[in-house]
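Deliverable D2.4 — example input (structure tokens):
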């Protein structure tokens, strides 16, 4: 399975709370406390994200987004934790994915890379324009190449390409959050292939 770790900072507690349903009485109670004392959001926010109903809504919403983007992967689990990195308090979100279709994920990553390089000058821009002008040809070549590779090599390729392009992905996620009026900033992301064991996700990123 693919594990994705996100570090989120500059969170506006009231903005995020507005987007979390308060159908559950525990969630409603925690929201009232956080609205009164916003500074404790990171401490109590993790409890809200761990409420099964809230977790199901987040997972369901993200899976719908993946379907809209024609990304064949399924979010099956998430965890949240308050952390401190370089003296700054952040929220760490861990997402666990399975049913990963390497072709769709790598095709989307290829599209992101091409779009980000189209306006660049020189060889990088010219090459990206040429590949982009080939239509479905590069994606068909990608599919044919993937069919010949063993599972371990596919895992390695996906995780390495995501790591190489993580700054672009972070920027895209932050732009998407801004468009949806989500007042929080994704600071960084990391990925790893993990085996799921009864005691949790192994190994940690």
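Example output (designed residues):
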């Amino acid at each position: 399975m693919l594990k994705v770790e996100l570090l989120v900072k500059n969170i506006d507690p009231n903005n995020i709370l507005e987007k979390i349903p308060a159908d559950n009485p525990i969630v409603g109670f925690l929201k009232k406390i956080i609205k009164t004392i916003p500074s404790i959001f990171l401490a109590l926010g993790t409890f809200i994200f761990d409420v099964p109903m809230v977790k199901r809504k987040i997972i369901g919403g993200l899976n719908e987004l993946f379907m809209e983007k024609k990304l064949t992967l399924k979010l099956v689990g998430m965890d949240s934790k308050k952390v401190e990195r370089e003296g700054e308090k952040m929220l760490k979100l861990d997402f666990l994915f399975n049913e990963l279709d390497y072709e769709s994920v790598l095709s989307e990553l290829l599209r992101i890379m091409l779009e980000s390089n189209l306006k660049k000058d020189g060889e990088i821009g010219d090459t990206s324009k040429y590949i982009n002008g080939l239509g479905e040809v590069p994606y068909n070549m990608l599919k044919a190449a993937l069919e010949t590779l063993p599972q371990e090599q596919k895992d390695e390729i996906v995780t390495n390409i995501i790591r190489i392009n993580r700054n672009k992905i972070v920027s895209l996620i932050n732009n998407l959050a801004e468009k949806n009026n989500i007042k929080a900033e994704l600071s960084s992301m990391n990925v790893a292939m993990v085996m799921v064991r009864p005691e949790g996700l192994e190994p940690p990123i």
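Residues 52-68 form the longest helix (17 residues).
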